[in-house]
Amino acid sequence: MRTQVAIVGAGPAGLLLAHLLARRGVESVVVENRSREYVQARIRAGVLEQGTVDTLVDAGLGANLAREGMRHDGIHLQWPGERHRIDFPSHCGRSVWVYGQTQVVRDLIAARLADGQQLHFEVSRTSLHDLETDRPCVRYVDAAGTPQVLECDVVVGADGFHGVSRPTVPAALQRTWQRDYPYAWLGILADVAPSTDELIYAWHPRGFAMHSMRSPTVSRLYLQVDPTERVADWSDDRIWSELALRMALDGWTLQDGPVTDKGITPMRSFVSSPMRHGRLFLVGDAAHIVPPTGAKGLNLAVADVRLLDLALGELFATGSEGLIDAYSDTALRRVWRTTHFSWWMTTMLHSSGDEFDEELRIAQLGYVTSSDAAAAGLAENYTGLPLGT
Ligand code: PHB
Known about the structure:
This protein is of the alpha+beta class. The chain is built from twelve helices and 20 strands.
């Protein structure tokens, strides 16, 4: 088999890149080791930056987003006794959209299959070869058990933190940075109308709590827990009462409801550089991980994909390698800006038990919610800086 771009991984990054490339007439094949059902069911973050929404709409993927997405013009920041709103449009002229990554992936898979484009699920033993030549290839075993060789011009590693792509880059040519936080998030999805119009991020001495949503009838909520905690120790009642306690505010009630999904996610920052090795290009979680505070993971992956789409478009249209040569440095500038923002939100909002640090958090929350300059900084990062900054 031969194609122009072999894409490893059918998450939002790989699928969106395949879609954008197809629109400019560049052919690709996407291979994924999970099943379609698994990929479409996994619950991930739910906030899209304006630039992410614009990309999806411009690519003809906006129909369900326009119907089901919810535009949010601000967030609430809270600490005991106080809840303050940060307005986005007045500070930076942009908004965000609440629309689940699960929905984005569903839309992308539907579009890919409707266009009759190649997307292979449940492949195994995927490996990348000849990356330092201009004829690399991807080997894998397809769902029927048949070994395949996919020859191509470019390989894109969109297979996440645990994928095969990043480890294929020789360690001597790669530099990584990592920060493991002493926190994890216990997340639930619940069949209950959100008790808030906009997301609530709450600092509390017992730990961070957050209220998000997926639709007018589905809420998504999170609690900071110790990374060693087990889901089995958290009954629905225990979760709801802890959420109510940490987000308590006079005159406000948290409505509970049936929990339909429950899971614990560790929190980590990770960056790998460069994001290119020969004809292999890394996008999204394959190259970097941010902690979920601020919902940047998907948006960062989309920013990588927008840059790589332009770069590969130029390569295939003109043979020029200017943009593919610049890809890694350009992408990494945004990655580090976003890594800082996610680290900052995480540090400000989680509780460590250190009395000095807790006072700093309250001071910082007071400043961000009372200074226009500080609020503008949060607003422009939260809604997403322009591509290339
Ligand atoms: C979510 O809805 O899953 C979500 C929203 C905002 C965050 C993180 C997660 O900062």
